[in-house]
Amino acid sequence: MLTGTQKSEISFNLEVAAPGRINLIGEHTDYNDGFVLPAAIDKCIVMKLRINGTKSRCTIKSKGFDSILVADLYNLKPGTEGWHNYVLGVLNELQLATQSLKGFDCEMETNVPVGSGVSSSAALECGLAFGLNELFDLGLDKWQLAKLGQRAEHSFVGTKCGIMDQFASIFGKKNHSMLLDCQSLDFEYIPTNISPYVILMLNTNVIHNLSTSGYNIRREESASGLKIVSGRFGVANSFRNITQNMVNQCREELGDILFRRCSYVLEENQRVLEAAKALKNNDLVRLGELLYESHEGQRVKYEVSCPELDFLVKFSKDESGILGSRMMGGGFGGCTLNIIHKDAVSSYVERASRAYEKTFKIKLSYFITVPSEGTSIVT
Q1: What rounded mean pLDDT belongs to the chain?
Q2: C-alpha angle 153/155/160, rounded to 5°?
Q3: Tens of pLDDT, residues 134-146
Q4: Alpha-carbon distance 237 to 223, whole Å?
Q5: CA dihedral (224, 225, 229, 232) positive or negative
Q6: Which runs of consecutive H residues, i.e. helices, occur in 234-250?
């Protein structure tokens, strides 16, 4: 928290940077009591906040969306524009958590690519919650802020996300990824220096209609499959308490779809642990292999990929400079994450862009990113 002296020096004005995130591996495991391996990135939403002296009037201006949201803290209802609901959800959760929030003004600008699977939504939620927590001395700790952002997305947006995105945006550490146990919320920082390789994100620039509904359906399917298996074997209802052998024995009762969903979750959890070990051992070849295996699991067993993502991952396999590639994020569009030699980036992007546009009539965009610091005050 800022001290009284620090607050006086900045006249109650704050500037906060909230990063998006990548996830090296571990997709759709966070809401299944699993493991994930995310990192905050060097693409941020920057928010400037000030107390405006009113009891409840909140004005939020977004340069990126070229629009203004005006909200009343005593009359919060879902909005009409997509980004509004992330803001309104945070305000609603803060109102439920504390009585100290009052009117404020906020201006924000982002360079987090929207719709690319790097969680611009969590950056927005965490940046606003973090900034208001500091501005009004609300006394919430980092875990409370992350969970608050998650609840906001559940209640006002309708996406039943896990905790990974908000966790990564809040807790990120420069040059480190984080192995998070989403059941216990224990985590460890893992040094992530992959030189001479870099993390290349290729943005398909597509978001299919299933992006929200499909996500929620997959969550329901995995929960339904888990209930069948845990019920049959009399164990607590968590993927941490079942094995692939148990799933195999329930195959007929599960049916094809739920069998594949459960199998994917168990296999992906194991891949995350292996990837963390590979990073610690600087075994980038094995890390790359795990990325390809993860994509195949998402494509076949969890069915959250799309033709554009599959094309880019398949295209990467003929490149000697690429160790691994996979789709990243909730699915049905967004980015592929690629571990590529720094000297191969330019020529590869050129070839991939040309082939992608020829096939889909869509221009490919890209960016290189590095593990970076989590949500913080700009000094």
Answers
A1: 92
A2: 55
A3: 999 999 999 999 9
A4: 9
A5: positive
A6: 244-249
Residue 307 backbone phi and psi in degrees, to 5: -55, -35
Report DSSP letters for 55-83, one per residue: SSEEEEEETTTTEEEEEETTS----SSHH
Q: Is 318 a catalytic residue?
A: no
- List the catalytic residue out of 66, 141, 165, 256: 165
d(CA 303, CA 138): 42
Higher pLDDT, 8 or 372: 372
Are 312 and 204 in contact by the 8 Å Cβ rule? The answer is yes
Location of structure tokens 């965009």 = 365
Using CA atoms, how far residue 77 sits from 19, 71, 72, in Å, is 27, 9, 9
Question: Quick check: 8 pLDDT over 70?
Answer: no
Instruction: Give the Å distances, CA to CA, from 233 to 42, 219, 268.
Output: 45, 21, 22
Question: Which tokens in the block code for residue 101?
Answer: 């929030």
Average pLDDT over residues 171-195: 97
Q: How far apart are CA 322 and CA 313, in angstroms?
A: 10
Gap between the Cα atoms of 45 and 127, Å rounded? 7
Q: Is residue 361 left, alpha or beta, with left meaning phi > 0 and alpha meaning psi from -120 to 50?
A: left
Kindly report the pTM of this predicted structure: 0.91
